[in-house]
What does this fold into?
Amino acid sequence: MHARPALARTVGLVLDAAAVLAFVAIGRHTHHDGVSPAGLWQTAWPFLAGLAVGLAAARSWRAPMAIVPSGLGAWLGAAGAGMVIRVLAGQGTAAAFIGVALAFLGLFILGWRVVAGIVTTQLQATH
It folds into this structure.
C-alpha cells in the first residue's frame, strides 16, 4: 500500500491491535468469560505486549503493510511472545490454546495484509 507513511503505520497498528482484541473477545465469549472491559484487558494485555515486541523486532514502521517482515513479526510477537508473557504473568496456557492463538492471529494479522495488498494492486491497475 502506498499510503502516506504515518497513515500506513497508524492503520497497520490499529488493524493489528484489532486482530488481537477480536481474538480475545471471541475467546472470552466462547468460554463464557464475559466481555467486560476489565476482563478483556486482563486477557489481552500479554498479547498486545507481545504484538509490540514483534512489531519492534521487525521494525514494522519501515513497511507496516508488508507481510514480511512486519506481518510475520506482528503475528509471532502477538502469539509467541504473548504466550510467554502470559505464562510469566501467571495466566494459563494449554497446547490447544497455543494452536488456536497461532491460527487465529496468523489468519487475521497476515490476512488483513493480504487483503490490503490485493485491494492496492486492483486500485493501481485501474489507474
